[in-house]
Amino acid sequence: MRYEAPSTIDQAVEILSQADGITRVLAGGTDVIVQMRSGMVEPDLVVDIKRIDAMHEITPEDGGFRVGAAVSGAQLGEHDGVKALWPGVVEATELIGSTQVQGRATMVGNLCNASPAADSVPALVTAGAIVSIVGPGGARREIPAYEVTTGPGKTSLEKGEIVESILLPARPARSGDAYLRFIPRTEMDIAVVGAGVALTLHPDGTCAEAKVALGAVAEVVLLVEPAASAIVGTRLEDEALDALAAAASAACRPIDDKRGTIEFRTKVAGVLARRAAVIAHDRARG
Amino acid sequence: MLDKAKDAVIDREFKLVGSRPVRPDGVDKVTGRARFGADISAPGMLVGKVLRSPHAHARIHSIDIHAALQVPGVKAVVTRDDFAENAKHKDVLCNVMARDKALYEGHAVAAVAATSAAAARKALKLIKIDYDILPHVTDVDEAMRDDAPLLHDDMITSGVDPAPEKPSNVARRFEFGHGDVDDGFAKADVVIEREFKTEAAHQAYIEPHACLASLTEDGHGELFCCTQGHYAVRDICASLCGLEVSKLRVTASEIGGGFGGKTTVFLEPLALVLSRKTGRPVKMVMSRDEVFRASGPTASTSSSIKIGATRDGRITAGQGEFRYQGGAFTGSPVQFGAMCAFACYALDNVKTVGYDVVTNRPKQAAYRAPGAPMAAFAVESVIEELAVKLGIDPIEFRLKNAAQEGDKSSYGPTFPRIGLIETLEAAKAHEHYSAPLGPNQGRGVASGYWFNFGGATSVSLNIHPDGTVALVVGTPDIGGSRASMTLMAAEELGIPYDKVNCIVADTASLGLNETSHGSRVTFASGLATIEAARNAKTEMCARAAMIWEISEEAVTWEDGHAKPAGANAGDFEPMSLADIAKIAEKTGGPISGHFEKNPAGAGASFATHIVDVEVDPETGRVEVKRFTAVQDAGKAIHPSYVEGQFQGGAVQGVGWALNEEYVYGPDGKMQNAGFLDYRVPVCSDLPMIDTVIVEVPNPGHPYGVRGVGETGIVPPMAAVANALSAAAGVRMTELPMSPPKVLRAIDDTRPSIAAE
Amino acid sequence: MSQIHVSTTINGDPAEFLCEPDETLLDVLRDRLGLTGSKEGCGSGDCGACSVTVDDRLVCSCLMLGAEADGRDIGTIEGLAEGEHLHPLQRKFLDHAALQCGVCTPGFLVAAKALLDHNPDPSETEVRYWLAGNLCRCTGYDKIVRAVLDTAAEMKGA
Question: Using CB atoms within 10 A as the burial measure, which of A1, B57, B200, C9 is most buried?
């Protein structure tokens, strides 16, 4: 295995695009190193992007924030601006692993590891986050967070491409977001079900727009349009929330595994979507 | 409680016992200096790694190590061919290195020693094994079926008369009890029958197994390893490796948790044989994955319980059938389960039957009160259900039926002085028991029993010329026992705590000691320490008598001094231990005390736990809100470490109750071999764990000590199940009570909640 | 596979080592530098026994490559006491009997120190969540949490 720690993104892309064999980008390493140690992956090249200064920055942009790929969960959690703007995204990212893992794990890494249970992803999807990708020759493209993961462990990134940053857009007035997950313990587990909700209210208090995303209930994070529609135009009365929960459950196509059953995930997806919607609603009302 | 005890030991005023000094090994452990199993290295050391079966059950036709040996840096490969047959330790040998079959996923099939871990890993991949994959079975009930895949062609169930003609996976059958249960059930107003299942849990000590072995061609061996019993390691390794016991010196490292799981050997014989073959020291350390797949978790079980009682709350009969699988070899703790199941109750009619079953899982090792927690989960759940059905307070119901001194136990012997009633009364009186509960919360209670053991014990105590004392014990310190031993020695000698230094000797430096298990250390090594100190005091009195020129009987030991026994003995200035020690050379030479014996009289320890849980009715998640552990310690030598045992046992029980389990796929492979998905409780899962130390002195120990290490894990599972039942109205009969199971149970009773 | 030369600072002292590219910082600390106070309990970031600080950020040294340590400032259990003076957390762990076997203790101490550096007055809940990544199988956490809270109280009073 070769270890490279370039100091610019162009160098990183250059190294990656010229490499043969199995390559891995190392940000926080909390997934990659575990996979290496367990023999799940034996990379020929690891490119550490933490020596690229810009990757560590959180910068304001058009009323939102651009978060570098090497920004750790701990660093994000300490940023009052992002926390105030998209509390659901920050909370979701902070749920990843322990304090120790937070010291290293990154939101971008969580996204690119492409686990269906990734905590930050439903929140990023509902926040409408935009992912900035750099490719060979410095070519840049931007895609919604929703389009990064294509299946368990699979992304839409091409050979030589690296995610440089994620733009958390400006948040419309009277809007809020929230993310909840179910785990058997209070910490240290992988989500059995995750639910992110972002919504915007009309001045009259009815819901103008909503997004509901679910994690760990399908091969990728699901954006559940019928669940969102169930609350648009409502004041999130019980019936609307019931409909949202039912739609969320109906959208699930989970598996039985060591972490949960199909029956359990399906039901709890509705429960959590409902609870997250209530929190997002409270935040939108301020 | 104390005023009820009649024993003389209770009148003793202790100066040091009962205080909470800093442990002697403390500073090493908070600075990172303490040397655990993997912390030792030796010059020229090689790294050893094990190749393990990927199959749950497979015949091993051939093993080709040729390519592995060609890897640069690889010095030796060992397989079954490197170990001679061993009639005495047949199963242990077969477990540390598979013979004709791999009996479980993770079963060792070869081991490599190399100059680097990378070379060893590379070599493992190049070992070619020709397996013939066989059908497997991992569930205890399935393993007992007539058509189950057979692990051992020659396994004929013992304990059955007449002996079965056909082999099966049932190794042994046990039966205990007295009276006539049918008669008892006929007298009952209420009879409850339930079936229970419990999944295997792992001790989940944080330190993986590790050892460093050095064995020369002339049969001299040194082994450094993390173990609860280095004498047992010595004896087994000497046998498996064909060594003389006196030539194999085993040193117990500091041990990073064991809970019963470090009472046998896994890597040690492999490291010794690799060392002999290479002529170099070999270090081996398990990965966490290996610890889960290839060390010794506890048994998984199924059981059938039937208990009957009269309307006024008297149990008329108790019956239990217990089926425990203990992995690929005989030895599940079902015997103990069947013995402990009803031990809390004074019953006229009781019968328990146990079946020891083999399956394609790793060979179980002891885990804290082995066998008892699973039986208690079943019995104490039915006891609570009966109490509720009869409308009697659960503690009151237990008190009405509680075993006490003079009662014939459910497994045979008559109880001496025991403290179950005292724990029940303390629990009932505790503020926790009557505290208000919030919505979705419930409270549960359960009691538990464990025998406690004695066993071979040697202690040596050396009085140094500077007035300090070296206390040499042979029981590895698994939870602060050096502090307790030091307290008892200092108490008995009448000198300050810091004048005694306690160490754990290697196997060559002290006589035989049974393993640190069975809650025996504070009892047996403690008793031995006190006796050794008394032995030394006798000698010191003799020295004073010699100096004073009076008879030895005329000298007594008091407050750390030799004194004339009375006015008639003469008027002499008392001599302190230091005074006597300083001139020992002139009065006959070194002074020391000894004890070598098998102490009997390990007093049983009973516990009663109270737990409050809150259930999320929409997700089935259970949170422990409050926990109080009440247990009889006989006499708490160092109360902090007694509390620590209660707390640790309680929390391990909470883990077993709620989330810990071995998850097997249809391929017979463990699916959660890591701390990510084998979910032990984390700090944020728990409240503080309140403790009440009950002290009903054990007449078998000079200070009244009862071992406390194990009983604490017996009640929690039932206590949690009972609390959950109170909180959510569902009776859970399978462990773990994980959210999917709890939610399904809730939905089955209240289907309208389902968000369809 | 050629080894990588790394220059770093460990507990305030300069340190240099050669390591394989896939070697973790924990392997380097234990096997190359003889700093065996950090323990490997799982190798997957789930137990916290290998906790160290890197540029004052708490991390699992098993989840970091040795090569990544270049130019960083590493803090381990061996650097917690100052000479013969134990850190208040070390003293309180002893006073409260907050350890039984002691193998998780170095990780807990490093993590608890990072907590108090970051939040000198934590609530019980904050202590419990901060330490959720440190597994202890012996104590049930009760005495550990008390020791940390008591240390915070003492340090605040000082």
Answer: B200
Residues within 8 A of B (CB atoms), A 29-68 only: 38
Split into its structural domains, chain B has a count of: 2
Chains contacting chain A through 3 or more C-beta pairs under 8 A: B, C
Q: Tell me the per-residue pLDDT of B626-664, one tens digit each, with 9 for 90 and over.
A: 999 999 999 999 999 999 999 999 999 999 999 999 999
3-state secondary structure labels for all residues of B676-744: CCCCCCCHHHCCCEEEEEECCCCCCCCCCCCCCCCHHHCCHHHHHHHHHHHHHCCCCCECCCCHHHHHH
Q: Both B488 and B623 in a single domain?
A: no
User: Which of C68, C114, C132 faces A186 most closely, judged by CB atoms?
Assistant: C132
For residue B271, being part of any structural domain is answered with: no
pLDDT in tens, C29-38: 999 999 999 9
B688 pLDDT higher than 50: yes
Q: Is residue B462 part of a domain?
A: yes
pLDDT band at C28 (very low <50, low <70, confident <90, very high): very high
- For chain C positions 45-64, those within 8 Å of chain B (CB to CB) are 46-47, 49
Interface contact C136-B206, CB threshold 8 A: yes
- For residue A170, CA distances in Å to A81, A107, A127, B385 come to 11, 18, 9, 58
What's the whole-number average pLDDT of chain B?
A: 96
Residues B578, B502 share a domain: yes
Instruction: Please tell me the predicted confidence (pLDDT) of residue B3.
Output: 38
Mean pLDDT of the region B519-528: 96
Q: Is residue B569 pLDDT above 50, yes or no?
A: yes
pLDDT at B4: 39
Closest partner residue to B686 (CB to CB) among C43, C77, C141 is: C141
Verify that B589 and B714 share a domain, yes or no: no
Cα–Cα distance, C39 to C30 (Å, whole number):
8
The answer to whether the Cβ–Cβ distance between C20 and B36 falls below 8 Å is: no
Taking CB atoms and an 8 Å limit, are C67 and A186 in contact across chains? no
| Single-letter amino acid, residue B429 | A
Domain-embedded: residue B659: yes
Is C9's Cβ below 8 Å from some Cβ in B?
no
C46: CB partners within 8 A, 6+ apart: A188, B674, B675, B676, C133, C135
**What is the CATH classification number for the domain harbouring B612?**
3.30.365.10
The domain boundary, picked from B597, B618, B649, lies at B597
Q: Which domains does chain C have, with CATH numbers?
A: 4-79 (3.10.20.30), 88-157 (1.10.150.120)
Give the domains, in start order, of chain A with CATH numbers: 55-168 (3.30.465.10), 175-285 (3.30.390.50)
Cis amide bond preceding B370, omega within 30: no
The last residue of a domain, from among B536, B566, B597: B597
Residue numbers of the domain that contains B540 = 454-597
Is there a contact between C58 and A1 if contact means CB atoms under 8 Å apart? no
Which stretches of chain A score pLDDT less than 50?
none
Strands B221-225 and B210-215: antiparallel
State if pTM tops 0.90.
yes
Question: Is the Cβ of C65 closer than 8 Å to some Cβ of chain A?
Answer: yes
Nearest CA in chain B to C34: B39
